[in-house]
């Protein structure tokens, strides 16, 4: 009995240390997403893509090459089958990139520490792939390109809810005048999921936020953590900080 209690306390301290320092895989994913964006025509910083019309054409071609086009993915071409992986590292704007990186920074390190580096990397890629494929299957006739790490990061949120439901999260809610308030993670993440679910019911297939990919990723992440770590949830008192941006 004493040994189990000691192991539990050691795990809590390890998780808290990882959250403060930042996980290696989490940091690597963030760095890769930022590097891809900065060197792509989407950032506007790379002079090799030219300007004005040339830049717009380069951006369109970039999305088509590396993003998910649901109609092509469902048709089953070899190139299209790889795009759910490449699309995880492509972001359409600075706001899109920074919002996603904020959520990954906040929730990734603790989840990575709990799973381990190799498993977390597999989890992130597999759930992200699943989320984009799920969206494509539902919108099989769509020719709109889908990019971003939102599905994978939503899976991280789902796993975090299962693993650390009592962790204290500081959140900024617009309807509360953006006051920084602290809540248990389960309140914040359940509220976030409910918003994504409601938005997905009214979303179309045109340009905009792929809320269904968020929902699919979140559910996949929660179920993975529930099955993989059944009966071993860490009731950590560690804290995290979440911004108001949507992944």
Q: How many strands?
A: 3
Low-pLDDT segments? 1-20, 172-179, 236-246
Listing every helix as H and every strand as E from the N terminus to the C terminus, the arrangement reads HHHHHHHHEEHHE
CA-based shape: globular
Largest sheet: 3 strands, mixed
Number of alpha- plus pi-helical segments: 10
User: What percent of the residues sit in helical stretches (DSSP H or I)?
Assistant: 55-70%
Kindly report the spatial arrangement of strands forming the biggest sheet. Answer: 2-1-3
The fraction of residues assigned to DSSP E strands is 5-15%
Mean pLDDT: 81
Q: How large is the radius of gyration?
A: 19 Å
Amino-to-carboxy terminus distance = 41 Å
General description of the model:
- Strands 2-1-3 form a three-stranded mixed sheet.
- Helix 6 (94-115) packs across helix 7 (117-138).
- It has helices at residues 2-21, 24-39, 52-66, 70-75, 78-86, 94-115, 117-138, 150-163, 185-202, 211-228, and strands at residues 168-172, 180-184, 239-241.
- The chain is built from ten helices and three strands.
- Strand 1 and strand 2 (180-184) form a beta hairpin.
- It has 247 residues and is mainly α.
Task: Please sum up the structure shown.
It contains ten helices and three strands. It is mainly alpha-helical.
Tell me the layout of helices and strands:
Elements: H1 2-21, H2 24-39, H3 52-66, H4 70-75, H5 78-86, H6 94-115, H7 117-138, H8 150-163, E1 168-172, E2 180-184, H9 185-202, H10 211-228, E3 239-241
Parallel strand pairs: 1-3
Antiparallel strand pairs: 1-2
């Amino acid at each position: 009995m004493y040994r189990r209690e000691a192991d539990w306390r050691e795990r809590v301290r390890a998780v808290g240390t990882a959250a403060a320092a930042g996980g290696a895989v989490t940091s690597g994913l963030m760095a890769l997403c930022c590097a891809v964006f900065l060197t792509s025509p989407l950032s506007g910083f790379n002079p090799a893509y030219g300007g004005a019309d040339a830049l717009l054409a380069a951006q369109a071609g970039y999305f088509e090459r590396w993003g998910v086009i649901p109609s092509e993915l469902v048709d089953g071409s070899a190139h299209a089958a790889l795009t759910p992986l490449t699309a995880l590292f492509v972001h359409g704007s600075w706001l899109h990139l920074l919002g996603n990186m904020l959520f990954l920074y906040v929730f990734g390190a603790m989840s990575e520490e709990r799973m381990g580096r190799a498993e977390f990397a597999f989890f992130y890629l597999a759930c992200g792939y699943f989320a984009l494929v799920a969206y494509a299957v539902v919108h099989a006739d769509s020719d709109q390109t889908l990019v971003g790490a939102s599905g994978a990061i939503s899976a991280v949120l789902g796993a975090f809810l299962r693993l650390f439901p009592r962790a204290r999260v500081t959140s900024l809610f617009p309807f509360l005048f953006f006051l920084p308030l602290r809540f248990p993670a389960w309140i914040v993440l359940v509220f976030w999921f409910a918003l994504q679910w409601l938005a997905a019911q009214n979303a179309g297939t045109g340009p905009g936020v792929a809320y269904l990919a968020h929902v699919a990723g979140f559910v996949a992440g929660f179920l993975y953590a529930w099955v993989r770590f059944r009966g071993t949830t860490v009731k950590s008192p560690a804290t995290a900080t979440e911004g108001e941006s949507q992944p």
